[in-house]
């Protein structure tokens, strides 16, 4: 009887450990239903959205203020449209704020960083950030550097 009680205790302990790991994985991935905060949608149009994903964070001054909820192609301007849900407690963003696609570290995840403008008119639900800075694609940067090096070598001959 004592052996059976010990086996049941070990099994419950293992089950609790597996559930804790599952909850941790869900929270880290951003899939867990956490504390729901009222939010509003804001749109931004970028020429290049390379590497940005849905559920990427939106930050201002290094503080997480929202998430990217959708990425699609605008058929009229042929640019990428990013839909962001910003926390309702950050409802005082000026209309001339800037949205940039940034990288955490050298090769880390992409996220949207917002820099505050100085306009008195504020962004509202469904508003658009017009001043954007697209993603920096490392392959394009290396290609431009190599092409520039080849052109300099040809001019010196």
From TrEMBL:
InterPro entries for the chain: ABC_MlaD, Mce/MlaD, MlaD_Phospholipid_Transporter
Domain Mce/MlaD: 39-116
Top-level taxon: Bacteria
GO terms assigned for molecular function: phospholipid binding; phospholipid transporter activity
Protein name stated in the entry: Outer membrane lipid asymmetry maintenance protein MlaD
Species of the source: Phytopseudomonas seleniipraecipitans
Native organism taxonomy: Bacteria, Pseudomonadati, Pseudomonadota, Gammaproteobacteria, Pseudomonadales
Gene designation per UniProt: mlaD
């Amino acid at each position: 009887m004592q052996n059976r009680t010990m086996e049941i205790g070990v099994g419950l302990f293992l089950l609790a450990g597996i559930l804790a790991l599952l909850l941790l994985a869900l929270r880290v991935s951003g899939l867990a239903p956490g504390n729901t905060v009222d939010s509003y949608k804001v749109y931004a149009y970028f020429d290049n959205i390379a590497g940005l994903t849905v559920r990427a964070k939106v930050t201002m001054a290094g503080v997480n203020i929202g998430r990217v909820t959708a990425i699609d192609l605008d058929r009229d301007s042929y640019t990428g449209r990013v839909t962001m849900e910003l926390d309702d407690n950050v409802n005082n963003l000026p209309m001339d704020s800037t949205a940039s696609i940034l990288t955490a570290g050298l090769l880390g995840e992409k996220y949207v960083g917002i820099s505050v403008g100085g306009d008195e008119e504020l962004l509202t639900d469904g508003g658009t950030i017009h001043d954007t800075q697209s993603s920096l694609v490392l392959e394009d940067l290396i290609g431009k550097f190599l092409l520039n090096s080849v052109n300099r070598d040809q001019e010196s001959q």
